[in-house]
Every structure is written in structure tokens, then in C-alpha cells.
Amino acid sequence: MDVKTYVQQQIKNMRSLVDDVVKGTTEDQFNWLPPGTLNPMSAVLIHIVGGEDFFVQNVLQGKPRVWETQAWGTHIGIQIPPSPGHDWDECRCTRLALAPVLGYAQAVQAATDAYLAGLTAEELDRQVNFAGRMVPASHMLILLVVHAAGHAGEIAALKGMQGVQGLPF
After folding, report:
1. Interacting residues of 162 by C-beta distance below 8 A, sequence separation 6+
2. I need a surface site. Which of 4, 101, 112, 150 has the fewest CB within 10 A?
3. pLDDT exceeds cutoff 90 at 43
4. In a domain, 8, yes or no
5. Is a pLDDT exceeding 80 seen at residue 16?
6. CB neighbours of residue 24 within 10 Å
7. Contact residues for 60 (Cβ-Cβ < 8 A; gap 6+)
8. φ, ψ for residue 4 (rounded to 5)?
9. Which of 153, 140, 141, 142 is nearest to 45 (CA)?
10. Running DSSP on this structure, what letter comes out for residue 40?
């Protein structure tokens, strides 16, 4: 298997994991505010999708995020996806509908897929600036998969805290 196919497969697997953990979630479960400093599923899912949007559109391609170009803040009802360095309180305190967040996910996935379609060995080796240091584009794609998979586990735990199954296995 070539590297391009491998990367595409890993991203497909990551998306499947996130889809599986979100499947069957009700609006109340999606917006349930857990005790302590944990975030609701709504904030975590937007963070996962927003991370993919930021990594692929902004870091890898130097483009504005799908969030901005398609005005997803207006559709979803928050100003910015929760991310490091930004306050997550807006997502913690705002009841969100699941359908627009899933719509944002579809738009980001389409943009990511367009980028992945043209992936080359040279692109995977190209150095990009992430958090003030230069890393290969391949590093960002691996980070994308690990980041989303970790947060999928977080969503599964949040569902478990509500007495419902998180992961299907």
C-alpha cells in the first residue's frame, strides 16, 4: 500500500470511529453538561471537526477554514469552534442542535478529501509551521487522526456517564 492510500485509510477509519460514537446521540445527550470541568459532547465534536478544518485548511494549505468561508458559526450558533487558547464557555453554555454540527463535519470532510486526493510524497514531506515549529505535513495528518480518535473516546465516556453505550464494540 502506498503512503497516500494509507493516510486516506487512516482518516477514513478515524471518521468512522467518530461517526460510530456519535450515532444515536439525542439532542439532550449532545448538550448534557457533565460535572466538573468536562465539556459537553457538543463542544467536543465541534472541537474535533474544527481541528480537522484548522489542520488541513489553515496549517497545511494556508487557506481560511471552512468555518469562515461557509459561515458555519451562523449555522451552528457560536462564534468560533472551541480550541486551545480560546474560551470554551460559549460551547459549554449554548444549547446546540446536532444536525448543523454534522453538516459542518460533512463540509470539512469534503474539503479534506479534496486535499487528500492530490496528496503526493513531496506534499507529505513538505514542512509546515505548526505552533511555532516546522513539521512535515505527514505529521499534521497523523496528529489529526490521533487527536480525533482521542476525543472520540472522550465522547464515548460522556455517553457512558449518561448511561448509554458510547462505542459500539
Report:
1. 29, 32
2. 150
3. yes
4. yes
5. yes
6. 11
7. 115, 128, 137, 140, 141
8. -60, -50
9. 153
10. P
